[in-house]
């Protein structure tokens, strides 16, 4: 993964400043909106897009002319085609977020009262 990141950074740094700005926005949208998509597919798509943009620059085209003026629209169109993460990963994320939320709830509730009681007998019939 780090090799891909290094190669992608090198490709981005070789772009013109206007194309680099467009691609950085595009990559940001891909990473933010693509968090529920397969990350390997997102990375592969970013590498392919960077290569396409580099080829377009060699043909004297810019990113806006080649891919369109809106990096957000382009990212959303591509992300619709990429596979979602599997259900096991979704459940892991859900339980991790729920655990953190409960931990924070308990920590903040403990600061409000002198004694915090957790008892199963309070919930019995």
From TrEMBL:
<keyword id="KW-0472">Membrane</keyword>
<keyword id="KW-0812">Transmembrane</keyword>
<feature type="transmembrane region" description="Helical">
    <location>
        <begin position="93"/>
        <end position="115"/>
    </location>
</feature>
<keyword id="KW-1133">Transmembrane helix</keyword>
<protein>
    <submittedName>
        <fullName>Uncharacterized protein</fullName>
    </submittedName>
</protein>
């Amino acid at each position: 993964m780090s090799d891909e990141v290094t190669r992608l950074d090198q490709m981005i740094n070789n772009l013109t400043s206007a194309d680099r700005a467009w691609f950085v926005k595009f990559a940001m949208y891909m990473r933010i909106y693509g968090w529920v998509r397969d990350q390997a597919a997102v990375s592969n798509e970013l590498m392919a897009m960077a290569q396409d943009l580099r080829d377009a620059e060699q043909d004297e085209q810019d990113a806006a002319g080649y891919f369109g003026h809106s990096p957000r629209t382009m990212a959303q169109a591509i992300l619709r085609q990429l596979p979602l993460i599997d259900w096991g990963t979704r459940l892991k994320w859900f339980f991790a977020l729920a655990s953190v939320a409960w931990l924070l709830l308990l920590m903040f509730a403990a600061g409000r009262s002198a004694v915090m009681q957790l008892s199963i007998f309070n919930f019995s019939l």
